[in-house]
Amino acid sequence: MTGGPVPGSVRDQARAVADAVLYEGYLLYPYHANTRKNQSRWQFGVLGPEGAAAAGVGEDSELGAQFLVEAAPTATLRLTVRFLQLQRRAVEDAAGRTVPELRAGARVWTGWDEAVEQEIDSGPMPLSDNTFRIDVDGGVETEDIAADDGAPLGRLVRTRRPQTGSVVTVVESVGRYQRISVTVRNLGFPAADKDDALTRSFLGAHVLAELRDGVFLSLLDPPAEAAAAAAACTRHRCFPVLAGPAGTDDLLLISPIILYDHPRIAEQSEGPLFDSTEIDEILTLRVLTLTDDEKDQARATDPRAAELIDRCEAMTPEQMRGLHGLLRDAEPGPARVVPALDPETPWWDPLADNAVNPDSDAVVISGTPVARGSRVRLRPARRADAQDLFYAGRTARVASVHQDVDGHLHLAVVVEDDPAAELHEWYGRYLYFAPDEVEPLGAPPD
After folding, report:
1. What residues form DSSP beta bridges with 203?
2. What are the DSSP calls for 285-305, one per residue?
3. CA–CA distance from 330 to each of 108, 298, 361 (Å)?
4. Residue 286: CB partners within 8 Å, gap ≥ 6?
5. Most buried of 50, 206, 307, 410 (most Cβ within 10 A)?
């Protein structure tokens, strides 16, 4: 078990992923306020005030997850609830009237919904039932705007609504383990309409949990003896995964989006792009195609958009090439047979998808395990298309083993005597055959 505090570097990696979760969808390409998609951009981890979902004006008011720990009697748990508080930025002219925007030369000020990060710590606390309050103050701030000659032009008015909520923990013994339930609720009074609900919602809500004198158990890949207890854990609108580098077992991220254990930010990523799950290279290229006027509109919308635009414009050719893709070697280790999946588990569930590792799994053919690196002879079946039949009798090397959503197995191979074999493997252009269409020529290399 872990005895001491979590090292700063480990916690930093977990928080970097949590920050990406927090701002996922905060700004949507092309990053200026008057685009239609930016009129409804809060998508993940939205906890509306009480009754908002039932009234059809907002999101459900809570998220909750159960997870397992193996802990000493001295164990303590620290929970950090993080979310964005909406901050409405209005533009007023010199007469105090609200206007869509103000201009002074090349400068533009627009109305926009900003956000302020909120972080509420609970603990360290013993592993026991507890309830903690979340209280976030509202406020109004003003910023004067002057024309180029110094004459008063108007002002920006930033308004935040107060927010209140709770964090509830319930601890139960499950054999040698303890099952902890964490529920985060928005306790704000019922909303009058959608706009009112949004101003009092927790946005991008998630929880970072840190355990001392104990370990979190993976719910995606639990130890065999904990599999039944892990399968019985419930979750509501979130996905608890191990956080920090691989091998870390004292940090947990309760995320509003689907993640796998030990998620991390790709080292090639130069900074946040915000726009829901977009690929960095594609989105960066899109940003560079914006007109100067569109870039000015984006810069006027939000300081984070201005930073994003400037970063993309300053990227070097070497940095751009770094975004183009990266091949990572599979982690070393013996091949294992592709596991049989529970037919009742939906294909899109991370518990199912996480069970298969194409780069290290094996399939047994005629008593021989076949995995990445195995040599096989191709024997296309009658169901194969005409192109596959050209490869009958030729030898190939297995690159990976896959299982589709219907449970069928496929071997990705590269034909050995193909002059372009090395190139095909480099960019992942494979031929695919079923296990009954190949003849093993030996076990996979160690």
Report:
1. 84
2. HHHHTS-HHHHHHHHHH-HHH
3. 50, 40, 11
4. 29, 30
5. 206
Q: Residue range 417-443: average pLDDT?
A: 85
Is the Cα dihedral 105, 106, 107, 113 positive or negative? positive
Rounded Cα distance between 13 and 264, Å, is: 7
What sign does the dihedral 242-212-184-121 (CA atoms) show? negative
Q: Are 88 and 158 in contact (CB under 8 A)?
A: yes
Q: Give the CA radius of gyration of the chain.
A: 27
Residues 294 and 291: their CA atoms lie apart, in Å, by 5
CATH 2.30.30 occupies which residues in the chain?
A: 336-440
pLDDT at 327 over 60: no
In sequence order, what are the residues at sequence separation of 6 or more whose Cβ sits closer than 8 angstroms to the Cβ of residue 390? Answer: none
Sorting pLDDT into bands at 50, 70 and 90, what band is 34? confident
CA 355/CA 350 separation, integer angstroms? 8
Helix (H, G, I), strand (E, B) or coil at 73: strand
CB contact burial 405-426 (16+ within 10 A = b; e otherwise): eeeebbbbbbbeeeeeeeebbe
Identify the sign of the CA torsion 329, 332, 336, 340. negative
299 with 306: CB under 8 angstroms? yes
* DSSP-derived 3-state class of residue 159: strand
pLDDT band of 294, cuts 50, 70, 90? confident
pLDDT digits (tens, 9 = 90+) for 186-239: 999 999 999 999 999 999 999 999 999 999 999 999 999 999 999 999 999 999
Per-residue pLDDT, averaged over 171-185, amounts to 95
Q: How are beta strands 336-337 and 361-365 bridged, if at all?
A: parallel
Q: How far apart are CA 416 and CA 418, in angstroms?
A: 6
Among 55-64, 79-88, 225-234, 296-305, the range scoring the smallest mean pLDDT is 296-305
Q: Is 381 within 8 Å of 392 (Cβ atoms)?
A: no
| Statement: 336-440 belongs to CATH 3.40.50 | no
Distance, CA of 272 to CA of 170 (rounded, Å): 35
- Taking each helix axis from N to C end, the angle separating 303-313 and 280-288, rounded to the nearest 10 degrees, works out to 90
pLDDT of residue 340: 55
Query: Which amino acid would we find at residue 270?
Result: E
Question: What whole-number distance in Å separates Cα of residue 325 and Cα of residue 106?
Answer: 38
259 by DSSP, 3-state: which? coil
Residue type, 358: P
